[in-house]
Amino acid sequence: MQDEDDVPTAERVPCRRGRRTAFAPLDVDDAELVHAWRSEPVAAHELGVWPRSLSAVRERIERDLEDTDRDDFVVLLPDGTPVGHIALVDQDMADGTASVTIMLAEQWRGQGLGTDALDALLDLAFGELPLHRIEAGTHSDNTACLTALANAGFVQEGTRRSACLHRGSRKDLAVLGILRSEWEALDRPRAWDL
Ligand SMILES: CC(C)(COP(=O)(O)OP(=O)(O)OC[C@H]1O[C@@H](n2cnc3c(N)ncnc32)[C@H](O)[C@@H]1OP(=O)(O)O)[C@@H](O)C(=O)NCCC(=O)NCCS
Fold first, then answer.
1. Are 113 and 83 contacting, i.e. CB atoms less than 8 angstroms apart?
2. For residues 90 and 135, what is the distance between their CA atoms, to the nearest angstrom?
3. Nearest CA residue ID for atom 7, ligand 1
């Protein structure tokens, strides 16, 4: 397993920018990082993902890079340290909809970085792409994710009852969304103003 400190970041070119985070496009060379992040027990539990080999993660990233319906980013600190993965997936330009998924490395959670990265992703979705509605879903006990999404302006729209199985228990799936008009009403600087 590769340590984050060993990962060369010089070739990453940060693009989207939040107040405290930047994004760089996810590349195949990031497979070891993603593999480590998704293998961590809390992330695996909260995301409901199966353990996957490093080569399977690498192949998945390769396939995702071919997929024009998604944009995947490594979340970076201002000094280039990679702290997580965020993606705008299932982009449907006809309906103007997409979904967000996010995962931070364990040591970087609970410091506002998730909210900051979500803000920057919404600025991409509504400020650079003609999207109208962004959706997110998580099991209803994932308080950190629900709070970070609410901080970024998402509102809970519904509950898919008993929609997922985690650690032997059925969980409800909270469905959250934010509309373009709600993003426009947010009182915060946009990524391009920072
Ligand atoms: C979900 C996740 C991306 C959120 O990012 P983050 O940087 O930790 O979130 P933030 O610090 O911006 O905000 C979290 C909020 O939840 C609160 N929180 C965090 N953990 C909590 C917990 N266990 N119980 C209650 N509240 C909690 C924090 O206090 C903070 O609230 P505040 O802004 O009112 O102070 C990150 O925690 C993560 O990667 N978790 C594991 C994977 C995951 O769940 N992914 C999302 C699946 S949809």
1. yes
2. 10
3. 114
CATH fit for domain 13-134, picks 2.60.120.380, 3.40.630.30, 3.90.1150.10, 3.30.70.360: 3.40.630.30
pLDDT in tens, 11-46: 788 888 889 999 999 999 999 999 999 999 889 888
pTM above 0.85, yes or no: yes
Q: Would you kindly state where each structural domain of the chain is located, as residue ranges? A: 13-134
> CB–CB of 176/156 below 8 Å?
yes
* Best probe residue, ligand 1, of 73, 85, 104, 121 (max atoms within 8 Å of C-beta): 104
Exposure of 154 in the CB half-sphere (CA atoms within 13 A): 27
61: which strand partners? none
